[in-house]
Amino acid sequence: MNEITPEELRKWPKDSYKLIDIRDDGLVAYGMIPGAVHISMEELEEGTSAELENTDRDRKLVFYCQIGRKSRELDGFKCLEGRDIYSLEGGYIGYVRAGMLDESDREEKQHRAEESIRKKFHKQLFSPFAKACKMYRLISEGDHIAVCISGGKDSMLMAKLFQEIQRHRQCSFELTFLVMDPGYRRENRELIESNARALGIPVTVFESDIFDAVDTIEKNPCYLCARMRRGYLYSKAKALGCNKIALGHHYDDVIETILMGMLYGGQMQTMMPKLRSTNFEGMELIRPMYLVRESDICAWRDYNGLHFLQCACHFTDTCSTCHDDGTTSSKRLETKKLIAELKKTNPFIEYNIFKSVENVNLDTLIAYKKKGERYHFLDEY
């Protein structure tokens, strides 16, 4: 199979090729190259892709995966016999990195991103952000908030929303945009810094050795990594004089966590909008994206032509196996698909899951825990 670089591809006439994304659903949901179509590896193996069948055989087929490995190994597929096929060098990550080198339109990108928050996506993004801050009392006078940026779409948008709400001057508080480098490869760190510059976010970067520390862990490395990251963020934020850290978990994370707790953990729990730290006195964790829908975050990202890395994990360089709370994306994706399926027959399913943890009737529960102590209905029966 021939390889083509992102720079070479940009020189080809648009109608001379079809760009095909062969990554899994979890990565595809996180962002695609503009103009690409998604065809799964299963469809290629079974030769069942209608998209491929309907593509003119004279058009070149350019495949890409996440980092350019899988897309180089498609020569043996029967459905591709006789087709002019190419692999995009570096995959999706290579495409994103190639684009970050051009910062000539940085000011225009920042203006467009900010303007879209104020106008086009005001109702979908800023309003629920401000509502969560007010409803759950997430911001107080005199706060110094460490806005924790992982480099993904959620945390980057959260940073912009914080800048916007601070601009309204209804409450006086300070912001520090905090990026922890747990051992990223140089290119991945550069991408985070490049996106921050393009969006006008003045980041403070500090380093840790978390990736090295969990490198030899076989059981639940993602969970340990997430726990360690949280501790490092608390510690650095406190050293910088902050009293709160803000994380970018959104509405969909909340309802998926509720359902995952029941299906995989055998418990009723939710992701709280704010928490007091038990290990760092005087520190609080807040989640101001609590009422923001992931689909609206994706719409804002795509509208502004932005591309972010999902994880940049030390193990795979492009990890699709972990989530910000250490849960595996396979379980999260399975839960996401289940919710989507249930929504077909009940359009209120997401709202009902979200509201279920606000309408808990203790009189109908067999047992529950509070502050680590277990209570059983027979205790007072």
What does this structure look like?
The protein is of the alpha/beta class. The protein has 2 domains: 2-100, Oxidized Rhodanese, domain 1 (3-Layer(aba) Sandwich), CATH 3.40.250; 113-333, Rossmann fold (3-Layer(aba) Sandwich). 41% of the residues lie in helices and 14% in strands. The strands form 3 sheets. A 6-stranded mixed sheet has the order 8-7-6-9-11-10, sandwiched between helices. The chain has a 5-stranded parallel sheet with strand order 1-5-4-2-3. Helix 2 links the parallel strand 2 (17-21) and strand 3. Helix 12 crosses helix 14 and helix 12 packs across helix 15.
Please identify, by name, the CATH architecture of the largest domain.
Answer: 3-Layer(aba) Sandwich
Helix content: 40-55%
Low-confidence segments: 315-327
- Tally the helices: 15
Helix-strand sequence: EHEHEHHEEHHHEHEHEHHEHEEHHHEE
Broad CATH class of the largest domain:
Alpha Beta
Overall geometric form: globular
User: In what range is the share of β-strand residues?
Assistant: 5-15%
CATH superfamily of the largest domain, by name, is: HUPs
- The end-to-end span amounts to 72 Å
Radius of gyration from CA coordinates: 23 Å
Average of the residue pLDDT scores: 88
The total domain count is 2
- Mind describing the biggest β-sheet? 6 strands, mixed
